[in-house]
Design goal:
By secondary structure, the chain is an all-alpha fold. It has 6 helices and no strands. It has 2 domains: 59 residues; 74 residues, no CATH class. Helix 1 packs antiparallel against helix 2 and helix 3 crosses helix 6. The termini are far apart.
């Protein structure tokens, strides 16, 4: 109902303005000069334009959909403390203890053989590290002797088979 009242008001104002503009030339020429007529026409035009702008703003002020803000969920910390177990270092394995008991020249011979068979890619330095450990485990797996690396005596048997 409010919109129809505003529309009626605008129509009425526009009609009155048009009537006043139409009535201006009918007034006596002495009472109304060109300046007065121009002034009244300018005022009438300003009123009409103002009403048109107001009605347009009223139509444009229709409710605008605003998307709701997304629900933010604080991320949960999922850090898990790494498990530390005794004896998981490659340097404390039976394979490492057996390897270190050999002389430097024998350890280099083991590494040379592992390289010749395609298991080892590191330098021939006689040191037991991750490269040597991975090569020995791969060699034992391929030979079907993975269980022998669980004990020092089994590792000795595997190394002796490589050297002699």
């Amino acid at each position: 109902m409010l919109l129809s009242f505003n529309a009626a008001k605008t129509t009425l104002l526009a009609g009155l303005t048009a009537l006043s503009i139409a009535a201006v030339p009918a007034t006596p020429a002495l009472a109304w000069g060109d300046r007065e007529q121009g002034f009244v026409a300018g005022v009438a035009t300003a009123v009409i334009v103002d009403e048109i702008i107001k009605s347009r703003r009223a139509r444009m002020a229709a409710p605008v959909y605003v998307a709701p803000a997304p629900n933010f969920v604080e991320p949960r910390h999922s850090y898990v403390e790494p498990r530390r177990t005794v004896g998981t270092s490659i340097y404390s394995t039976p394979a490492a203890r057996a390897f270190q008991s050999y002389s430097l020249s024998e350890r280099k011979a083991i590494q040379r053989n592992l390289r010749a068979w395609g298991y080892y890619r590191g330098g021939i330095d006689g040191a037991f590290g991750p490269g040597t450990y991975n090569a020995i485990v791969a060699y034992a797996r391929d030979e079907g002797a993975s269980a022998s690396l669980r004990s020092t005596s089994g590792a000795y048997g595997l190394y002796d088979g490589m050297i002699y």
